[in-house]
Amino acid sequence: MNYREIAYNGVWKQNTSLVQLLGLCPLLAVSTSFVNGVSLAIATIFVMALSSGVVAGVRSFIPHEIRIPVFILIIAALVTIVDLAMNAWLHELYLVLGIFIPLIVVNCIVLARVEAFAAKNTPLVAAWDGAMMGVGMVVAIAVLGGLREFIGTGMLFSGIEMVIPGSHALQLLPEDYPGFLVAILPPGAFLVLGFLIAGRNWLDARAEQRARLSAPAQATA
Amino acid sequence: MFAALLVMAGIAVVLGALLGFASIRFKVKGDPLVDKIDATLPQTQCGQCGFPGCKAYAQAIAKGEAEINQCPPGGEEGIRKLADLLGKEFKPLSAEHGVEKPKQVAIIDENACIGCTLCTQACPVDAIVGAAKQMHTIVAPLCTGCELCVSPCPVDCITMVPVPEAVETWKWKYPVVAIRVQETA
Amino acid sequence: MNEDSAARASLRNAAILTAFAVLFTALMAATYRATKPAIDASAEAEKMKLVNEVLPDGLYDNAPLADWIDVPPREELGLAAQDAPVRLLRARKAGVPAALVFEAVAPDGYGGRIRLILAVGADGRVLGVRAVSHKETPGLGDYIDPKKDRNKAAPWIRQFDAKGFGDVAAADWKVAKDGGRFDARAGATISARAVTNAVRRALQFAVDRRDTLYALPAQSALGKEGQ
Amino acid sequence: MNGTSPHLHQPISVRIIMLKVLAALVPGIAVYVWFFGAAILVQIALASAAALAGEAAILKLRDKPIGLHLGDGSALVTAWLIALTFPPIAPWWLVVTATLFAIVVAKHLYGGLGQNPFNPAMVAFCVSIIAFPALMSQWPAAGHTDFAAQMAVVFKSQSAQDAVTMATPLDALRTQLHTPEARATVAGVLGSHASFGNIGGKGWEWIALAYLLGGLWLLRERVITWHVPAAFLGVLALIAGGFSLASPDRYAGPAFHVVTGGAMLGAFFILTDPVSGATTPRGKLIFAAGVALLTWIIRTFGAYPDGMAFGVLLMNLSVPLIDMGTQPPVFGHKGKEGSDERR
Amino acid sequence: MTGYLFILIGAVLVNNVVFGRILGLCPFMGVSKKLETAVGMGAATTFVLTVATGASFLIDRYLLVPNGLEYLRTLSFIIVIAGLVQLTEMVIQKTSPLLHQVLGIYLPLITTNCAVLGVPLLNIAFRHDLIESLLFGFGSAIGFSLALVFFGSLRERLEGADVPLPFRGSAIAMITAGLMSIAFMGFAGLDKY
Amino acid sequence: MLAALFKFKGGVKPASHKDESTQTPIAAVPLPAQLIVPLRQSAGGTPQPLVRAGQKVLKGERIGAPEGNFSSAIHAPTSGTVLAVAPRMLPHPSALSAPCVVIAPDGKERWIERTPVDYLAESPDALRDLLRDAGVVGLGGATFPSHIKLKPGASGRIATLILNGAECEPWITCDDLLMRERAEGIVRGIGILRHIVAAERVLIGIEDNKPQAIAAMRVAAAQAAGIEVVAVPTRYPAGGEKQLIRVLTGIEIPYGRLGTEFGVQCFNVGTAYSVHRAVELGEPLVSRIVTLTGNVERPGNWEVPIGTPIDELLSLAVPRADTDRYIMGGPMMGFTLPRTDLPVTKAANCILAASPALFPPQGPELPCIRCGACTRVCPVELQPHELYWFSRAKNFGKAQEYNIFDCIECGCCAYVCPSDIRLVDYYRFAKTSMRALEREKAAADAARQRYEFRNFRNEREQKEKAERLAAKTAAARQALAGGGPPAAPEHAAALPQLDAAKKALIAAAVERARAQREGVQPKNTDDLAPEKQAEIREIEARRAKVREIAKTPPEEPV
Ligand SMILES: Cc1cc2nc3c(=O)[nH]c(=O)nc-3n(C[C@H](O)[C@H](O)[C@H](O)COP(=O)(O)O)c2cc1C
Ligand SMILES: Cc1cc2nc3c(=O)[nH]c(=O)nc-3n(C[C@H](O)[C@H](O)[C@H](O)COP(=O)(O)O)c2cc1C
Ligand SMILES: Cc1cc2nc3c(=O)[nH]c(=O)nc-3n(C[C@H](O)[C@H](O)[C@H](O)COP(=O)(O)O)c2cc1C
Ligand SMILES: Cc1cc2nc3c(=O)[nH]c(=O)nc-3n(C[C@H](O)[C@H](O)[C@H](O)CO)c2cc1C
Ligand code: SF4
Ligand code: SF4
Ligand code: SF4
Ligand code: SF4
Ligand code: FES
To answer: Neighbouring chains of A at 3+ CB pairs within 8 Å?
Structure first.
């Protein structure tokens, strides 16, 4: 697998949020707005890349039966570091994201990736893979969060001032847009993600169909 | 700082010891899963899955080394069963391993057979009878339709024919549902 | 498998796990030390931010966060006997009492308790009120939180600002629907009523016990009977 | 394939069943108009149009025969029930969006008629009350049948005047009785409001009665069976009766619960939705009793004034388990020896 | 007494782990294709979650807080949970190969069921005592199992439905979960006195 | 009169349309030009043909011998010449062919020697054998060999004999007329059946829409003691065996169990009549009563020799012009005939001419709305919509959990379904698919065993050969061989795993085999007819050519 392939794999083909359906909790819980979702996802990328790299580096010393505790140890330590750092320097965001920062630990993707990939590859490749899986999540959570925020409030990027001081949210719909509240509540998360998954399936199916249609054309040409 | 190290080290010691001990105490032998997987495979023994026989394929699946969609004779139904058994997502038959065909049996053109026994040796289920240099015949009810005997035959006298339907074994067609117009998506 | 090899495996695993645990704990402890000052500062800033929302900036020059007393749960603050004591902060300018900042609870919100923080000036006027946490229906009752209030220019909860019993008599300190002076958003009177009543009770408490509250030494507690 | 047995068929169709349901709703609608004005007719028309348009669009997307499926009438039943459970002066876009949500998401994403696990009309109701609680609790007062004024609220998003709308009895009970500080009594709340009738709100008793009549006709026509209405109304009355006997000040009585909110409409028209409900006789009893229990609990202690819709959805999601658990014994598999009575 | 009841009702229904707190979704989506596996997973999770909540409470109360080590919560909780899960896995594998095979890759995934860490963390945040912790853990687990079992039975029925192609599989499952979550919102307010 | 009757749940009441075909008595059919007699006309094994083309047969002569005890004999329906023993299309929904004996009648109707038997003097076993050899099978539709149904089951004795004269399907009247006209024969047949199983009680169940048949049977039954004629309420499918037993005795017989286990057994009245003919007249079952009705000018009942082509029969009833298809059996359970030149079989009780006016074509299938109408009418108390849901999704395991095999395919559910779903077709699809799966499973198990055995044998042989070879061959060669001689590798897929040395060795072996083969003539051709010998010579020539072409050894030496 080259780096390109890993990237395609992580972002589209094996997208954790839309295909593998792993790491769903932060995806659904924190995607109430674009900013929240993306912030958490970026923290996740950081942990994923680092932990994959570290695990790939130390894996040969670890006996099989304690591999999971050790991996978790590594990840948990990294997460705690992120947690402390955000608490110190992005305090408001830290309060908003709540327990979902420590929960990056369990974020199944992290572990699934570590188990499936990092344990079999060199640190650099593993770190890249971790990062790309995280990017896949960023993409999904950005779309999900953006959609939910837009449908729910008619705005986008609310809370951006917590990350980039001085910037402002966009009011996309008129002020008197009533706001489809369900989109921001838990049901909205499930429903919108359902549509996203279906959309991805549809795009995939269409691409496949095109490929099939163009293949015979090429053959005759 | 020191307290932290002490606490974590303590937890680690206890857990490591416990797990090490349990991993030995509760070691499992044998794998009942292989037999269950093998039981769902069609036993055509054709090797199209890329493994020498259904059992080998079953072992590969159990170890996680093979996908569940590699057995053409089992077809979609077979994949579905495997998916159910293993709690995996169904996926269509992988094209590189072949296509699903109706069940076939081999027929030896008895006039052309030279009695070379190559087919007998190829047949995984001893469905071909006939001694060396004698004309060979296929016992149709035993033949699994694996096609393995076809290519070894030096005079190409073996052909595969679909199993004919009989009144006793006839199956009702799946009722045509008018509302299920071909999906376009 | 004999006991011996089991024991050996256990030992080895324990050793390895411990090594990792020690290593990473050390790493974390280091990070903790490095970030602790910043975290403490953030927490402090967080609290001050809340205080500053209800307490205008130039009004005081002491550190209210240090000048606190504990108030046992009382009905005026919407608290029941089993609740934890409330921390009451005192702002002073040049040592002169300027304002009291404390939490009060409106127990009868639509979705349950609404926790408020409010500042009462030394003159017995409300300086500001904010909802700290509530479970009112999003989109309906949540206008009590100015962040959610659609009327950004004049959020509902600011109508208490600069009002005291001199401006609105205690008997009129109610929502219009109940014959009072404060309006409520149509279709969501319950939340407004709960907040208004809670503010009235809390203000009454602050006015009644004003002197005791300012007089108590810092970091002491108000007695059961309000002494 | 035409030519397999049986070659004979009774001349009934889904369309006839659905038309009968619609017909049975007519008396209720008539009384509704009498008490609350013609706005409801506009809502019904809006919902119907939205339902048919949404259904047609999906069918087109999926390349299915549009005429065939639109003609089955089920979308109309859904639309009418949505209109009848929504406040008649809800803004037009609310009814339209909710109906589209019901038809597209709750019904057609599952493959359309017959395959949806959740009652589409109740999905529409619940989504709307969660998203727009204020709009969903704007009920007109009886007697205010001024059509122009109502239309202004519906189409021009004029916020409804306090004179025109009022808190419903369920809402009043919920907010005045079951908040922590409440010291009111049932009699106090219900009696305090001039236009509340003796039982369930002025006009609503009569509408409920009309629904009851329509429902009984459906029963006679064998479109529905007795299990669901009987179990629902019975259990609801039983629970309400028990509690109000024990504490008449805190809990409203059975008569109130049965005629107020969506109870009567639900008993005969909503819980009886064959698609999303249980199918075995015992299953129907459990299903309806479950809805009754949940309705009462949510009405009495919950955050939403009428719990029936949530009760229906909650029981909908239990239907596969209920059906599984209540399979009636099959011919010959009943007794020990395969026969239950021998001579 | 009523306090305990409200903790239970709250954990099981009102703030259901899956539909309200949005935790434990991976197993919720992954192990619900069949009712049978859903029941098994529910049982396994119930055990692990209850014990994990209790154990983490004890660790927090008697090891971390006295030493000012709150920042080690995440690490120590997750390690204990991981060990617990692996132990359970080994025991199940030995005693019931069938259950092990059915639960397949999901047993180790209990470790990564974020409810198993999330509930203990919430539990600490809510300042429960030991009994309340156990109730909270158990209630959350029951809520999870309940959601999982209902979802499993619905998905089994959905297998026969003529769902539009792009929605087949996980998409319609998500939609179903969304509608279930709408239904569960009906419980709002039941835990508040 | 008996005490109150029992009831079965469900059932439907379609218009009965019996009067059309009861206006005229049973008529005889002129002999057709050809009779096509399928060899397999009952459940169980296919009888072996006893005649060859060209052979002359007498009426009643056995032309098919029962295959094992679970089978029934087949007889020539008239005297004449056998034209062929060959596959012909059967009147079966599959439109498949099966072996038939085609007879050209000589018009003389010469019987074999008929030997009446005094049944009272015979043992039950002998009588059962007699029935088997006389080809007596159930004429109620299932054509189950009657002698098997007469074996007492676990409960020891069949205390109650039930005679099924319900004829619950609309349009069909063959049993009705038989009872009206030949009640005495039926009652005599009942006497024989009763003697065989030593039944205490006989109940004849007749739907109350056939008063004349009831009257006739009452008169005939009065002559014997202990036979009771019971009018049962008209409700389809009251004539289903289990439903009738339930109505008359209250006993419910579950799927997969026999009435004999519960001390009851049920026979069609036509069956009883043919028992009488077989025993007391010595005439095997060579004809049956068939109702021709529906969209025809002259509906009625005919006594038809088995094997009569249906189109010849139809000309007697004169179908109307708008007839679009023909149904064999009744409108509820019958199937559309693929063609009309097919023979009448023992199962054919009715040929129904259908027109769009009589049986309007069904609309397109709509989705099931779970309305439960089907549940209310299912006489087996199944959940038809669940069966449909699972069958449609091909979830056979679930369908079986919901007892799909209990379904008697009566069609009540499809009759009432407002969505016009072809429910029964789904059940038939599911049932036949499941049976096929079971057969496949059995075949797979057998294949696994044979495969494992072969592997075991190969291993053993390989080891033995290796040992032998190791002792014999030169050291160098041994070093090359490594693993032993070219015993058959398991198959193609295993090949890549062989190392190059082995491959070389195998190629050499093949070359040797080829050289040897070239010198030798096939030996199994010695005692063949001259023309075959010539053919073989020709083939040999072809083979020589093939060998020329295929000089390169085959890639795979297996
Ligand atoms: C689902 C739902 C949620 C509600 N939430 C609130 C709320 O959070 N705050 C509130 O004051 N009223 C809320 N209400 C409205 C109250 O029930 C009640 O109708 C209203 O407060 C009466 O106000 P009015 O007198 O101005 O009409 C809600 C109503 C519903 C149906
Ligand atoms: C199907 C149906 C559903 C209803 N749902 C609600 C509801 O969710 N909330 C509510 O407050 N009133 C609801 N109502 C209205 C109440 O039944 C109430 O009796 C009525 O609004 C009283 O109005 P009044 O106070 O103006 O007489 C519903 C009515 C019907 C027919
Ligand atoms: C739905 C259904 C209806 C039937 N109706 C009749 C009937 O009306 N008359 C009849 O003799 N057999 C009928 N049968 C066949 C009987 O079940 C049973 O096979 C027969 O009575 C047994 O007698 P036999 O072995 O002599 O044919 C029916 C079967 C089914 C499944
Ligand atoms: C008796 C009866 C009751 C019905 N009730 C409802 C209902 O409550 N909500 C609804 O959306 N559709 C209802 N329908 C229509 C239809 O069954 C429904 O739209 C299906 O759920 C769509 O698949 C009903 C139909 C009948 C025959
Ligand atoms: S492909 Fe052939 S050998 Fe492989 S499992 Fe299937 S049937 Fe068996
Ligand atoms: S005869 Fe040929 S096709 Fe049949 S099983 Fe044997 S090798 Fe396979
Ligand atoms: S009668 Fe038809 S539509 Fe009604 S439940 Fe049965 S199968 Fe479904
Ligand atoms: S065909 Fe089968 S399922 Fe339908 S009514 Fe008859 S017995 Fe019941
Ligand atoms: S992210 Fe919560 S369970 Fe996977």
So the answer is: B, C, D, E
Chain D: nearest CA to A198, how far in angstroms? 11
- pTM given for the model: 0.86
CA of C187 to the centre of ligand 1 (A): 5
Nearest-by-Cβ selection for A186 from E112, E118, E181? E181
Q: Scanning every residue of chain C, which has its alpha carbon at the shortest distance from the alpha carbon of B18?
A: C10
Residue F43's CB: how many other CB atoms inside 10 A? 16
| Contact residues on chain B for F440, CB-CB shorter than 8 A | 42
Are the CB atoms for B150 and B106 separated by under 8 Å?
Answer: yes
Q: Find the mean pLDDT for residues F516-533.
A: 46
**Ligand 4: does its nearest atom lie under 6 Å from the Cβ of D106?**
no
Both tokens assigned to F485 = 């001689």
The CA distance from E160 to the nearest CA of chain D, in Å, is 8
Under an 8 A CB cutoff, do A84 and C31 touch? yes
- At C212, phi and psi to the nearest 5? -55, -45
Give the single-character DSSP code of F309.
Answer: B
- Maximum Cα–Cα distance for chain B, whole Å? 91
Angle value at C-alpha F497, between F495 and F501, nearest 5 degrees: 90
As a three-state string, the secondary structure of chain D is: CCCCCCCCCCCCCHHHHHHHHHHHHHHHHHHHHHHHCCHHHHHHHHHHHHHHHHHHHHHHHCCCCHHHHHCCCHHHHHHHHHHHHCCCCCCHHHHHHHHHHHHHHHHHHHCCCCCCCCCHHHHHHHHHHHHCHHHHCCEECCCCCCHHHHHHHHHHCCCCCCCCEECCHHHHHHHHHCCCCCCCCHHHHHHHCCCCCCCCCCCHHHHHHHHHHHHHHHHHCCCCCCHHHHHHHHHHHHHHHHHHHHCCCCCCCHHHHHHCCCHHHHHHHHCCCCCCCCCCHHHHHHHHHHHHHHHHHHHHHCCCCCCHHHHHHHHHCCHHHHHHHCCCCCCCCCCCCCCCCCC
DSSP at F493: G
Q: CA gyration radius for chain E?
A: 17
Cα–Cα distance, D32 to D206 (Å, whole number): 8
Q: What is the C-alpha to C-alpha distance for residues E25 and E8, in angstroms, rounded to an integer?
A: 21
Residue nearest to atom 2 of ligand 5 (CA): B46
Look at ligand 4, atom 23, and give the residue with the nearest C-alpha: D113
Nearest to F331 among D6, D12, D225 (CB): D6
How many whole angstroms separate alpha carbon F125 and alpha carbon C23?
Answer: 90
Q: Is D159 on the interface with C (CB under 8 A)?
A: yes
**E72 and chain A in contact, CB less than 8 A:** yes
Q: For F224-277, how does the pLDDT look when each residue is reduced to its tens digit (9 = 90+)?
A: 888 999 999 999 999 999 999 999 999 999 988 888 888 899 999 999 999 999
Read off the pLDDT of residues F61-75 as tens digits, 9 standing for 90 and up: 999 998 887 889 999
